[in-house]
Amino acid sequence: MPTGTVLSVGMAEIKVAKGPVVYSCLGLGSCIGLCAIDAASGVSGMVHIMLPEAFKDKPVEKPGKFADTGLPEMLKLMEKQGADLGRLQVAYAGGAQVFNFGASADSRLDVGARNATAVEALVLKLRLRVLGKDVGGSSGRTVTVDTSTGVCTVRTVKAGEAELCRLKSV
Amino acid sequence: MNTQGLGLLQSSAVKEMANIGLGHAATALAGLTGQTYVMDVPVVERLVLEDVPQFVGGREDVMVAVYMDFEGDVVGQTAYVFPWDSAQVLWATLVGKAPATPDDVDELAASATLEVGNIICSSFLNAISDLTGLRMHATPPMVSIDSVTSILSTVAAEAEIRDLLGLVLETDIRMEGTPRTPGYFLCMPNEAGLSLLLERMGVSEAA
Predict the structure, then answer these.
(1) Is B148's Cβ below 8 Å from some Cβ in A?
(2) Can you give the residue range of the structural domain that contains B30?
(3) Which residues pair with A151 in a beta bridge?
(4) A with B: how many residue pairs have Cβ under 8 Å apart?
(5) Which of A162, B2, B92, B150 could form a disulfide with B98 if both were Cys (CB 3.0 to 4.6 A apart)?
(6) Based on the structure, what is the number of domains in chain A?
(7) Position B173 in a domain
(8) What pLDDT, in 10s, does the model give residues A88-100?
(9) Can you tell me the distance from the alpha carbon of A28 to that of B43, in angstroms, rounded to the nearest whole number?
(10) pTM score > 0.90 for this model?
C-alpha cells in the first residue's frame, strides 16, 4: 500500500518532493511521464511532458510542457532540495499513438513517437540512469511511482496494471 | 482550471454554432441508423489546452473517440469522444453485436465507429460552414478506444503544436430511450478562424 502523500502530476506540471510520496500521471496518451529519485537525499521529482521541444517564437510559460525545458527544470528544482544529480535513478513511460485506426493513422498525430525520441536523447545527454521505460505503442498509460518502495507501475486499459521497474527508494 | 472566459456574446454565438452543428450531427446519425436520436444542449467551455484533460475530472473510464482535422477558411481539429455504453448501443444497431471489452473491438466494429465519427464530425462542420459561409472541409478521421484522459491529452497536445484553441462541448447524442451518458465534442479552431466565425455570427472579437 502507498504510504506517502499522493501527488497528481497534471499535463505540463513538474512536482518535486523530499521524503516518501506517490506520484501519479493519469492518462498519458502521447505525453510522457518521467520520474527521478535520489535515494540518498530522499529527493524525487516527476514531470508530465506534452511536447518534444519549446517553440522558438513563443515564451515558455510552463517549462514542464516541453521535454527540452521540463527535464532540466525538474533537475534544477531537485538540486535545490538537495538532490545529487549524479545519483539519480530514472523511469519514464508514455508517448503512445492512441488514435490507431483510420486511413491517416500512420501519418498524423505522431507526437507520441516524437516525445519518446526527444526524452530518450535528453536522458542520454544528461547522463541519467534509466532503470525502466515503456514508450510507444497504441495504449494510453497511467504511471504511478511510490518513492517509499521505488516501485513504478504502468496501467493500461487493455493490459491492466504491471510493474515497470523498481528505483532505489527514499 | 482556466476557462479563458469567452465574452457573453461570444459564448452565446459559440453555443448557437455548437447547437446547430451537433443538431445536424444527431440528424445524420438518425439517418444512418434509422433510429431517433436526441441531443443535450451543450455546455461550452474555452480552456487552456493543458487543462482540457482535467475537464472530465481525472477519470480513467474507457471512451471511444473519433478525431478529424479540418481545412479551409477555418483550420483546426475536431474530436467526438463518447462513452463506451453509447458505443455499445451503436455497435448493436450497426453491426448486430456489441464487443464486450475494448479488446474485443474487431475491424468491423472499428470501421463502423470510423463511419459514425466521420458522419458526426462532417455534419457538424458542414452545418457551421453553411451557417457562416466559411469553408471547413472534413478530412479522413481516426479512431481511439482508450481511457478518456489519454484521449483528451493526446488531442490537446496536437492542438498545442498547431496553436489551436480549446473549445470543449459537453453533450450527449443518444438514441431515444437509452440512458443519458454525456460525451465530449472538441472543436479546436485556430484563433484567426474563431474570429472569422464570430464575425460571421455578428459578434466582434472585442465583445
Answers:
(1) yes
(2) 8-200
(3) A146, A166
(4) 115
(5) B92
(6) 1
(7) yes
(8) 999 999 999 999 8
(9) 25
(10) yes
